Amino acid sequence: MSPYIVGALVPLLVALLYQNSKNTKKRGVPVDVGGEPGYAIRNSRFPILLETAWEGVSTLAQLFELACKEHADKYLLGTRTLISKDTQVSADGRSFEKLHLGEYEWLTYGEVFEKVCNFASGLAHLGHRSEERVAIFADTRAEWFMALQGSFRRNISVVTIYASLGEEALCYSLNETEVTTVICGNKELKKLVEVSGQLDTVKRVICMDDEIPSSASLEVQSGRWRVVSMADVEKLGRENPVDAVLPLAADIAVIMYTSGSTGLPKGVMMTHGNVLAVVSSVRTIVPGLESNDVYLAYLPLAHILEIAAENLVAGVGSAIGYGSPLTLTDTSNKIKRGTKGDATALRPTVMAAVPAILDRVREGVRKKVDEKGGITKKLFDFAYARRISAINGSWFGARGLEMLLWNFLVFRKVRAILGGRIRFLLSGGAPLSGDTQRFINICLGAPIGQGYGLTETCAGGTFSEFDDTSVGRVGNPVPCSYIKLIDWPEGGYLISDSPMPRGEIVIGGPSVTVGYFKNEAKSKEVYKVDERGMRWFYTGDIGQFHADGCLEIIDRKKDIVKLQHGEYVSLGKVEAALIVSPYVDNMMLHADPFHSYCVALVVAAQPALEEWASKRGIAFASFAELCEKEETIKEVQASLVKAAKAARLEKFEIPAKIKLLSDPWTPETGLVTAALKLKREAIRKAFSEELSKLYES
């Protein structure tokens, strides 16, 4: 039997075995810990915190070398070839780049290891010393991963920077860490040239692309930088090999600059041991995660979620195919009509995703179903309702067979959107709505492991187990973490609360990072070491423990605003409830202590709103004009009220007035982070006039 067929059957078999006990199984159990008094839980299967799942392996460099030797002839890194690039102009005059991409071309583990070793030697030959830092400033691609591993083989700390980071934050990150070598792509090299006069320590720039932009030659002529291609660095290393200088577990692997929702970014210092603990933990959670899986990589590698995922996939001998959010599916913005998106070409078995991506997949499916209407829509809705009933009851017997029937007749076409072979999805970076989690789970026929963690804990915190079919929770502690709740009396959250303990979430264990680079004051504020030597990170998030030891995020300290008459509003909670409206692409709730009601900025979902306008016979010259119409605002407002009632929000939590916006919020606009989280201060500043008018009207 094909290993892929076996892999596809595993989720069903595990779900069937555990379905009846899902509500009684203890996933997390109380544990005695030191530090500030609270209520602490550990993973029920691991009485001792896990540091590594590979015998004798204590660093990411060791893990990668071991995998390359064990799987030398297997595929590791795949990249699609560019066949053609076209520019299309829309009716309103905007131009869009469309790509025709070919099939994946692969490098084996052995070939990648050779390139990595050559790159490491080339770095040394260029004069980069182990005590100096490298920065990787590029979109996710195979060269990014190889540059990371090459740096590790020289025990070089890697500074990770989002490709979408603005000029001020870019200069700040490079200067604060005194980076001497920057590794980037063509696009990012152009950005570097523009700020070259503001960079104090950069000596070398390594371009991942062979064609170096002409603008960079000026920097070479001035003697400020040495610009060289990655291929040339590998050639230098091949001709001048040097021995590896491998790191220890306590050495800093990565200084990760978060894109930050407020102010300048902070550099989080992660050791090899920190990241390995999380990688090891996830390996124990996902059944059958071994050398037969294919992973689609498209999230930013400058984010810990993606770094951990790719190191795990490489560590178990599986394949990584690279894509991008704009080329992910056959209907993605940058894919030429009639050609394959990344998922169709790769047909992955496992993926990581952020809620914003999954929300879009859900909206896209619902839109297609609604467009077809008739018997297609009725059949889809009936099948979906039956699957909900089955999940709430039992998957045994007839219902188990019925699930297979609906998967074949109805949901098979939905699965095809992501290649048709997905057996597990990992969601992280932000809360995933219960509606989206259930929808994706049913339509793809695969579990979604919703995780909770932070950059400061290397994404280690909690993770939904494979057989946990509940929604709205973030799972039980991963094997490398203790989760503790402590009282927050000011917000009214106490561990003595009934029926569930509630409080601020504090995470302890080997995944808790060293602290913030050159920011001891901030580090002391949120990192604590207890009398037993355990390191804890104070998250600022508010959670509650369910009876089975699983965590639910219910609030965040910074997101709570007290209205004029004393009511508390949790901005994030309300936004998560309202964003399920089909008319909403994104939104930010705003609450002012001097008013008794909330308002909201709503980025409108263009396809859904234009379809509504067309059915109503509403004429408009542009989408921006449609968003200004009073009847449009009333329609969107009504949909928000409907979503609010479904989520049982209080009246004061529902925005009394809204402003519809036609332009999307992207990392490039500076209004959301690379992980698509809201940058509240930036949004408030950009739309201060609109917010004032909402309160004045």
Automatic annotation (TrEMBL):
Q: Which residues form the AMP-dependent synthetase/ligase domain?
A: 97-517
> Which UniProt keywords are present, listed alphabetically?
ATP-binding, Ligase, Nucleotide-binding, Signal
A GO molecular function annotation here is:
long-chain fatty acid-CoA ligase activity
Any one cellular-component term (Gene Ontology): endoplasmic reticulum
Q: Which PROSITE patterns match?
A: AMP_BINDING (PS00455)
Where does the signal sequence lie? 1-15
Q: Which reaction does it catalyse?
A: a long-chain fatty acid + ATP + CoA = a long-chain fatty acyl-CoA + AMP + diphosphate
Per the record, the domain of life is Eukaryota
Q: Short name of one Pfam family for this protein?
A: AMP-binding
Q: Which PANTHER family match?
A: ACYL-COA SYNTHETASE LONG-CHAIN, ISOFORM J, LONG-CHAIN-FATTY-ACID--COA LIGASE
Family per record = Belongs to the ATP-dependent AMP-binding enzyme family.
The protein's name is AMP-dependent synthetase/ligase domain-containing protein
- The record lists the organism as Salix dunnii
